[in-house]
Design a protein that fits this description.
Length: 375
Amino acid sequence: MASSGSNELTGTNTLQSIRYNRGSLQLLDQRKLPLETIYLEIRDSTDGWNAIRDMVVRGAPAIAIAAALALAVEVSNLGDFSGSPSDAASFLQNKLEYLVSSRPTAVNLSDAATKLKEVISGAAATASEAKSVFQDYIEAAEIMLVDDVASNRAIGSYGATFIQHQVEKPKLSVLTHCNTGSLATAGYGTALGVIRALHSGGALERAYCTETRPFNQGSRLTAFELVHDKIPAALIADSAAAALMKSGRVDAVVVGADRVASNGDTANKIGTYSVALCAKFHNVPFYVAAPLTSIDLSLSSGEEIVIEERSPKELLNSRGGLGEQVAASGISVWNPAFDVTPANIISGIITEKGVITKSSAADAFDIKAFIQKTL
């Protein structure tokens, strides 16, 4: 199994997808799990771009942190830089734009880049040498790593408390889709963080995780984390979710998000929309757990979210495209990485600042007002 050891900056003891010390970054190759534990050395932004695009690291929060730290490692080991502070700022900003292109649907990545660019611009305006700009960038990237873990724990706490209050049962069974745990974040997790918090509080009867085809993040990664943490759990086929809910064995569904539009429409791993429809039909509350950085107020609805399409090999071959061919030669493939769940079938959005609920009158989220209250 993957090591759980403590991260130097975060002090976390959960499974780590990211190992970072200043000047050194290793990413757990999640394509190899659960059978092999291999960490890949990330030396620069090109390595980071490839690791994100090739699904070595995945999960919107983890992608953002990995990208930021990949560039931090690159500039830590850059050696002499003959340019001015302005040149250093241009170098960093261009690298960040390049990294954002690796996974366009994950808004956390573009949000992190935007915030880091502000740090870079501020540093360049006052620095007397390029080295100071690089130093400020490195420190800002490291703060993002620490903050992500704190954010995840807050999401877990708010979500567990809220769901217990809504369902009103001493112990709950919760279904989740894809992987949203410590392997998808800097540590602890979002939706899986809620499940962890329920378990640690003695309020979890059982967690159910879908296999999450075609890349099998549920069977390979979520199941891996649940077993590691000794959380009572069961794996189901994606197509079994409706039958499980009909049997009455699911009290709530909690999933993550790659992007949330201002009206609450949510892009998440393909198959999430199907799970949400099943939950709606069976009167099971459906929650999205995500940090505020996953919310994109510039988008009025999910119709504006760019949906990435993945390689046909992920469907044509076993093991998410890495194994033998399993489909008929010559068949065409449609393989979107995400789908959009409309806000009208989402019960609440769990964030690190609390749970966003709908006003009873409008039956709609006012996410902008919630965010303004937290500022």
